[in-house]
Amino acid sequence: MVKDDVGKVNKLLAKGADLRGVGICGWNVLMLALAARKRKAFRALLDAGVDTTHRDEDGATVLHIAARIEDAWYMQTLLEYPVDVNAIDPSSGATPLVAARGNYEQFQMLLAAGADPNIPDLSGGTALHHAAELARYQQVLDLLNAGADPNRADESGRTFQGYLHRPDPLDQGTEMRTKRAQITAWLRDHGIPIEQVPEHIARARAAGARHRAVGHVGDGAGGWTPAFTIDSSEFDDFIEFGKAIESALNELQQHNIPAKVVQRRYPAGDPIFSLPSWEEYRSR
User: Fold this and answer.
1) Residue span of the signal peptide, if any (predicted)?
2) Residue 204 domain flag
Protein backbone atom coordinates (compact mmCIF):
# COMPACT_ATOMS: atom_id res chain seq x y z
CA MET A 1 0.00 0.00 0.00
CA VAL A 2 1.36 3.38 -0.99
CA LYS A 3 1.03 5.80 1.94
CA ASP A 4 0.05 9.40 1.17
CA ASP A 5 2.84 10.68 3.40
CA VAL A 6 5.56 12.52 1.51
CA GLY A 7 7.93 12.33 4.46
CA LYS A 8 7.70 8.54 4.65
CA VAL A 9 7.92 8.19 0.90
CA ASN A 10 11.05 10.36 0.81
CA LYS A 11 12.63 8.38 3.67
CA LEU A 12 12.04 5.14 1.78
CA LEU A 13 13.52 6.68 -1.34
CA ALA A 14 16.53 7.94 0.62
CA LYS A 15 17.09 4.39 1.86
CA GLY A 16 17.23 3.18 -1.71
CA ALA A 17 13.70 1.89 -2.17
CA ASP A 18 13.37 0.12 -5.50
CA LEU A 19 11.09 2.15 -7.78
CA ARG A 20 11.03 -0.68 -10.31
CA GLY A 21 8.92 -2.97 -8.17
CA VAL A 22 5.75 -4.34 -9.79
CA GLY A 23 2.59 -5.41 -7.99
CA ILE A 24 -0.94 -6.48 -8.82
CA CYS A 25 -1.96 -6.19 -12.50
CA GLY A 26 1.64 -5.37 -13.34
CA TRP A 27 1.29 -1.93 -11.77
CA ASN A 28 4.39 -0.09 -10.60
CA VAL A 29 4.40 2.13 -7.52
CA LEU A 30 3.22 5.16 -9.49
CA MET A 31 0.19 3.28 -10.80
CA LEU A 32 -0.55 1.99 -7.31
CA ALA A 33 -0.43 5.54 -5.94
CA LEU A 34 -2.85 6.63 -8.66
CA ALA A 35 -5.19 3.69 -8.03
CA ALA A 36 -5.21 4.53 -4.31
CA ARG A 37 -5.69 8.25 -5.10
CA LYS A 38 -2.60 9.21 -3.06
CA ARG A 39 -1.79 12.62 -4.53
CA LYS A 40 1.17 13.53 -2.34
CA ALA A 41 2.83 10.16 -2.83
CA PHE A 42 2.10 10.33 -6.55
CA ARG A 43 3.93 13.62 -6.96
CA ALA A 44 6.80 12.53 -4.71
CA LEU A 45 7.30 9.44 -6.87
CA LEU A 46 7.31 11.56 -10.02
CA ASP A 47 9.87 13.87 -8.44
CA ALA A 48 11.98 10.81 -7.65
CA GLY A 49 11.99 9.82 -11.32
CA VAL A 50 9.72 6.78 -11.29
CA ASP A 51 9.28 5.30 -14.76
CA THR A 52 6.23 6.85 -16.48
CA THR A 53 6.68 4.58 -19.51
CA HIS A 54 6.15 1.39 -17.48
CA ARG A 55 3.33 -0.76 -18.80
CA ASP A 56 0.94 -2.90 -16.80
CA GLU A 57 0.10 -6.46 -17.81
CA ASP A 58 -2.42 -5.14 -20.36
CA GLY A 59 0.08 -2.78 -21.95
CA ALA A 60 -1.29 0.49 -20.54
CA THR A 61 0.92 3.26 -19.21
CA VAL A 62 0.07 5.44 -16.22
CA LEU A 63 -1.09 8.06 -18.73
CA HIS A 64 -3.72 5.66 -20.10
CA ILE A 65 -4.96 4.99 -16.58
CA ALA A 66 -5.06 8.69 -15.70
CA ALA A 67 -7.06 9.31 -18.88
CA ARG A 68 -9.77 6.86 -17.84
CA ILE A 69 -10.46 8.02 -14.29
CA GLU A 70 -12.71 10.93 -13.37
CA ASP A 71 -10.11 12.84 -11.34
CA ALA A 72 -8.24 15.07 -13.82
CA TRP A 73 -5.61 16.08 -11.25
CA TYR A 74 -3.46 13.03 -12.07
CA MET A 75 -3.38 13.81 -15.79
CA GLN A 76 -2.62 17.46 -15.11
CA THR A 77 0.21 16.47 -12.80
CA LEU A 78 1.68 13.89 -15.18
CA LEU A 79 1.82 16.47 -17.95
CA GLU A 80 4.12 18.60 -15.79
CA TYR A 81 6.77 15.89 -16.21
CA PRO A 82 8.40 14.27 -19.27
CA VAL A 83 5.76 11.81 -20.52
CA ASP A 84 4.88 10.25 -23.86
CA VAL A 85 1.42 11.60 -24.71
CA ASN A 86 1.29 9.29 -27.74
CA ALA A 87 2.13 6.03 -25.95
CA ILE A 88 0.30 3.14 -27.62
CA ASP A 89 -1.39 0.35 -25.68
CA PRO A 90 -0.36 -2.74 -27.70
CA SER A 91 -3.45 -4.69 -26.66
CA SER A 92 -5.79 -2.26 -28.45
CA GLY A 93 -3.59 0.26 -30.18
CA ALA A 94 -5.20 3.02 -28.14
CA THR A 95 -3.33 6.17 -27.21
CA PRO A 96 -4.09 8.14 -24.02
CA LEU A 97 -6.17 10.50 -26.21
CA VAL A 98 -8.47 7.64 -27.17
CA ALA A 99 -8.51 6.39 -23.58
CA ALA A 100 -9.69 9.86 -22.48
CA ARG A 101 -12.78 9.85 -24.70
CA GLY A 102 -14.99 9.51 -21.64
CA ASN A 103 -13.35 12.37 -19.73
CA TYR A 104 -13.42 15.67 -21.57
CA GLU A 105 -11.09 17.52 -19.21
CA GLN A 106 -8.28 15.00 -19.67
CA PHE A 107 -9.04 14.90 -23.39
CA GLN A 108 -8.52 18.67 -23.61
CA MET A 109 -5.30 18.47 -21.61
CA LEU A 110 -3.84 15.85 -23.93
CA LEU A 111 -4.74 17.80 -27.06
CA ALA A 112 -3.17 20.94 -25.56
CA ALA A 113 -0.05 18.90 -24.75
CA GLY A 114 0.33 17.95 -28.41
CA ALA A 115 -1.26 14.50 -28.56
CA ASP A 116 -1.47 13.25 -32.15
CA PRO A 117 -5.13 12.78 -33.15
CA ASN A 118 -4.30 10.66 -36.19
CA ILE A 119 -2.71 7.59 -34.60
CA PRO A 120 -4.87 4.55 -35.52
CA ASP A 121 -5.74 1.75 -33.14
CA LEU A 122 -5.72 -1.93 -34.14
CA SER A 123 -9.02 -1.51 -36.00
CA GLY A 124 -7.67 1.43 -37.94
CA GLY A 125 -9.87 3.87 -36.05
CA THR A 126 -8.52 7.14 -34.73
CA ALA A 127 -9.68 9.33 -31.86
CA LEU A 128 -12.04 10.95 -34.38
CA HIS A 129 -13.77 7.65 -35.14
CA HIS A 130 -14.16 6.89 -31.44
CA ALA A 131 -15.53 10.33 -30.59
CA ALA A 132 -18.07 10.11 -33.42
CA GLU A 133 -19.14 6.60 -32.44
CA LEU A 134 -19.81 7.73 -28.87
CA ALA A 135 -21.60 10.90 -30.04
CA ARG A 136 -18.94 13.06 -28.35
CA TYR A 137 -19.57 15.87 -30.79
CA GLN A 138 -17.57 18.56 -29.01
CA GLN A 139 -14.61 16.20 -29.06
CA VAL A 140 -15.16 15.67 -32.79
CA LEU A 141 -15.00 19.44 -33.34
CA ASP A 142 -11.93 19.76 -31.12
CA LEU A 143 -10.17 16.97 -33.00
CA LEU A 144 -10.99 18.44 -36.41
CA ASN A 145 -9.65 21.80 -35.29
CA ALA A 146 -6.52 20.08 -33.93
CA GLY A 147 -5.69 18.52 -37.30
CA ALA A 148 -7.51 15.17 -37.22
CA ASP A 149 -7.86 13.76 -40.74
CA PRO A 150 -11.58 13.72 -41.65
CA ASN A 151 -10.94 11.51 -44.69
CA ARG A 152 -9.14 8.71 -42.89
CA ALA A 153 -10.96 5.39 -43.05
CA ASP A 154 -10.75 2.53 -40.56
CA GLU A 155 -10.44 -1.14 -41.54
CA SER A 156 -14.17 -1.31 -42.28
CA GLY A 157 -13.72 1.44 -44.85
CA ARG A 158 -15.62 4.07 -42.90
CA THR A 159 -14.52 7.59 -42.14
CA PHE A 160 -15.68 9.21 -38.92
CA GLN A 161 -18.82 10.36 -40.75
CA GLY A 162 -19.92 6.74 -40.98
CA TYR A 163 -20.16 6.70 -37.20
CA LEU A 164 -21.93 10.03 -36.91
CA HIS A 165 -25.04 8.43 -38.37
CA ARG A 166 -25.23 5.55 -35.93
CA PRO A 167 -27.51 7.61 -33.68
CA ASP A 168 -30.23 9.39 -35.65
CA PRO A 169 -30.09 13.16 -34.95
CA LEU A 170 -33.86 13.12 -34.45
CA ASP A 171 -33.31 10.81 -31.48
CA GLN A 172 -30.98 13.33 -29.84
CA GLY A 173 -31.50 16.50 -27.83
CA THR A 174 -31.26 20.07 -29.08
CA GLU A 175 -27.66 20.62 -27.96
CA MET A 176 -26.42 17.49 -29.71
CA ARG A 177 -28.23 18.38 -32.93
CA THR A 178 -26.63 21.83 -32.78
CA LYS A 179 -23.18 20.26 -32.42
CA ARG A 180 -23.84 17.97 -35.36
CA ALA A 181 -24.80 20.99 -37.44
CA GLN A 182 -21.50 22.61 -36.46
CA ILE A 183 -19.62 19.50 -37.60
CA THR A 184 -21.44 19.61 -40.95
CA ALA A 185 -20.60 23.31 -41.28
CA TRP A 186 -16.93 22.59 -40.51
CA LEU A 187 -16.81 19.93 -43.23
CA ARG A 188 -18.42 22.22 -45.79
CA ASP A 189 -16.10 25.09 -44.86
CA HIS A 190 -13.11 22.82 -45.46
CA GLY A 191 -14.37 21.32 -48.71
CA ILE A 192 -15.01 17.84 -47.29
CA PRO A 193 -17.91 16.02 -49.00
CA ILE A 194 -20.85 15.27 -46.72
CA GLU A 195 -21.54 11.54 -46.73
CA GLN A 196 -25.06 10.33 -47.37
CA VAL A 197 -27.24 9.14 -44.51
CA PRO A 198 -27.22 5.32 -44.46
CA GLU A 199 -30.25 3.78 -46.16
CA HIS A 200 -31.56 2.05 -43.04
CA ILE A 201 -31.66 5.35 -41.14
CA ALA A 202 -33.28 7.12 -44.09
CA ARG A 203 -35.98 4.43 -44.17
CA ALA A 204 -36.50 4.68 -40.42
CA ARG A 205 -36.89 8.45 -40.64
CA ALA A 206 -39.39 8.13 -43.47
CA ALA A 207 -41.40 5.69 -41.37
CA GLY A 208 -41.31 8.05 -38.40
CA ALA A 209 -39.46 5.46 -36.31
CA ARG A 210 -38.00 6.73 -33.06
CA HIS A 211 -35.54 5.30 -30.57
CA ARG A 212 -36.94 4.50 -27.15
CA ALA A 213 -35.99 2.55 -24.07
CA VAL A 214 -39.03 0.55 -22.98
CA GLY A 215 -39.18 -0.65 -19.40
CA HIS A 216 -40.80 -4.04 -18.83
CA VAL A 217 -41.92 -5.31 -15.42
CA GLY A 218 -42.00 -9.01 -14.62
CA ASP A 219 -44.83 -11.05 -13.13
CA GLY A 220 -42.50 -13.45 -11.34
CA ALA A 221 -43.50 -16.32 -13.61
CA GLY A 222 -41.41 -15.41 -16.63
CA GLY A 223 -43.85 -12.95 -18.18
CA TRP A 224 -42.95 -9.36 -19.02
CA THR A 225 -45.27 -6.40 -19.58
CA PRO A 226 -44.22 -3.08 -21.18
CA ALA A 227 -44.79 -0.44 -18.50
CA PHE A 228 -42.98 2.82 -19.33
CA THR A 229 -40.68 4.52 -21.81
CA ILE A 230 -37.56 6.68 -21.59
CA ASP A 231 -37.09 9.02 -24.56
CA SER A 232 -33.48 9.39 -25.71
CA SER A 233 -34.21 12.78 -27.30
CA GLU A 234 -34.82 14.25 -23.84
CA PHE A 235 -31.11 13.89 -23.07
CA ASP A 236 -28.21 15.81 -24.56
CA ASP A 237 -25.73 13.08 -23.72
CA PHE A 238 -26.00 9.34 -24.30
CA ILE A 239 -24.21 8.81 -21.02
CA GLU A 240 -27.00 10.64 -19.19
CA PHE A 241 -29.57 8.60 -21.11
CA GLY A 242 -27.86 5.43 -19.93
CA LYS A 243 -27.75 6.72 -16.37
CA ALA A 244 -31.50 7.42 -16.47
CA ILE A 245 -32.14 3.81 -17.53
CA GLU A 246 -29.86 2.48 -14.81
CA SER A 247 -31.52 4.71 -12.20
CA ALA A 248 -34.98 3.45 -13.17
CA LEU A 249 -33.90 -0.18 -12.95
CA ASN A 250 -32.22 0.39 -9.59
CA GLU A 251 -35.32 2.06 -8.16
CA LEU A 252 -37.54 -0.81 -9.28
CA GLN A 253 -35.07 -3.31 -7.83
CA GLN A 254 -35.23 -1.51 -4.48
CA HIS A 255 -38.98 -2.14 -4.52
CA ASN A 256 -38.41 -5.80 -5.44
CA ILE A 257 -40.03 -5.31 -8.85
CA PRO A 258 -38.48 -7.47 -11.58
CA ALA A 259 -37.63 -5.20 -14.50
CA LYS A 260 -35.69 -5.04 -17.73
CA VAL A 261 -35.25 -2.43 -20.47
CA VAL A 262 -35.35 -3.02 -24.22
CA GLN A 263 -33.87 -0.38 -26.52
CA ARG A 264 -34.67 -0.16 -30.22
CA ARG A 265 -36.39 1.95 -32.86
CA TYR A 266 -40.17 1.75 -32.88
CA PRO A 267 -42.30 2.73 -35.90
CA ALA A 268 -44.85 5.51 -35.67
CA GLY A 269 -48.11 4.21 -34.26
CA ASP A 270 -46.49 1.48 -32.19
CA PRO A 271 -48.41 0.86 -28.93
CA ILE A 272 -45.32 1.74 -26.88
CA PHE A 273 -45.91 5.43 -27.64
CA SER A 274 -49.05 5.30 -25.51
CA LEU A 275 -47.07 4.10 -22.49
CA PRO A 276 -46.34 6.57 -19.69
CA SER A 277 -42.90 8.04 -19.30
CA TRP A 278 -40.75 6.76 -16.46
CA GLU A 279 -41.51 9.87 -14.40
CA GLU A 280 -45.26 9.38 -14.92
CA TYR A 281 -45.01 5.68 -14.11
CA ARG A 282 -43.04 6.13 -10.88
CA SER A 283 -45.42 8.84 -9.61
CA ARG A 284 -48.42 6.51 -9.77
Assistant:
1) none
2) no
Q: Do 258 and 117 belong together in one domain? A: no
Give the strands of the sheet with 210-218, arranged side by side.
Answer: 224-231, 210-218, 259-266
Q: What is the pLDDT of residues 86-120, one digit of tens each?
A: 999 999 999 999 999 989 999 999 999 999 999 99
pLDDT in tens, 16-74: 555 666 777 888 999 999 999 999 999 999 998 899 999 999 999 999 999 999 999 99
As a whole number of angstroms, the distance between CA 28 and CA 56 comes to 8
Helix, strand, coil fractions of the chain, as percent rounded to 5: 45, 10, 45
Residues 32 and 106 in one domain: yes
Q: Are residues 160 and 237 in the same domain?
A: no
Report the distance separating Cα 230 and Cα 127, nearest Å: 30
pTM more than 0.85: no
Query: Residues 106, 79: contact at Cβ < 8 Å?
Result: no
- For residues 90 and 120, is the Cβ–Cβ distance under 8 A? no
* Side chain identity, residue 69: I
Q: Count CB atoms within 10 A of the CB of residue 129.
A: 27
Measured CA distances, 119 to 27, 85, 147 (Å): 25, 11, 12
Q: Which structural domain range is residue 195 located in?
A: 6-199
67 and 170 both lie in a single domain: yes
Q: Which of 84, 146, 155, 158 is nearest to 118 (CA)?
A: 146
- Spatial distance between the Cα atoms of 88 and 208, rounded to a whole number of angstroms: 43
